């Protein structure tokens, strides 16, 4: 009997020592969760909230992911998304129908996508990951989302339509008016009038000299080549 009691005591001591060695040499592993500190988006676009985690234990059905949101105006966090083997998107509230699961636990990803971002989505988003037995470390990470209004932009097609239907006709009309002002129609009575060869010697009539001097002035073609670079530059 005494021999058996000593044997049981020794066995208990060995088991206790083994547990102590395992506790000291094999501590419970820790996990880390990381995400970008800030994310910027434009209203109406889809924005990805990235969340990654590292764990020494393989992801199983016991792993869970929770996303919570705290408005920019302050207040307590509001949980709106949960994943545990399956994705459970929000059924009501401002995120209803706007959250898409992009995570892959096997690759250490727990990201989501927020569709049709609005200004009311500005705030802090917290990603929490749990993967037992990894219970130590930093299982949460935060991201500040900033959504800005969309700035209207002028497309090339709009500029082309503006040039084709406004500036180009205006330039043509302006050139036509300038040509009419600088090149008035000639009086047929003066240019085609009959003159006696006896009274006036060809080449000595003052009217012909005056007309010839007018013809040497700036023509419509000269005016066109002088003005068209200006309209080309303005257009």
In the CATH hierarchy, the third-tier topology of the largest domain is known as Immunoglobulin-like
| Second CATH tier, the architecture of the largest domain | Sandwich
Which regions are unreliable across 5 or more consecutive residues at pLDDT < 50? 15-19, 21-28, 203-216
CATH superfamily of the largest domain: Immunoglobulins
What coarse outline follows from CA principal-axis ratios? rod-shaped
Sketch the major β-sheet. Answer: 6 strands, mixed
Domains counted in the coordinates: how many? 2
Total number of beta strands? 12
**CATH class designation of the largest domain:** Mainly Beta
Order of helices and strands: HEEEEEEEEEEEEHHHH
Strand content: 25-35%
State the distance separating the first and last CA atoms. Answer: 112 Å
Number of helices: 5
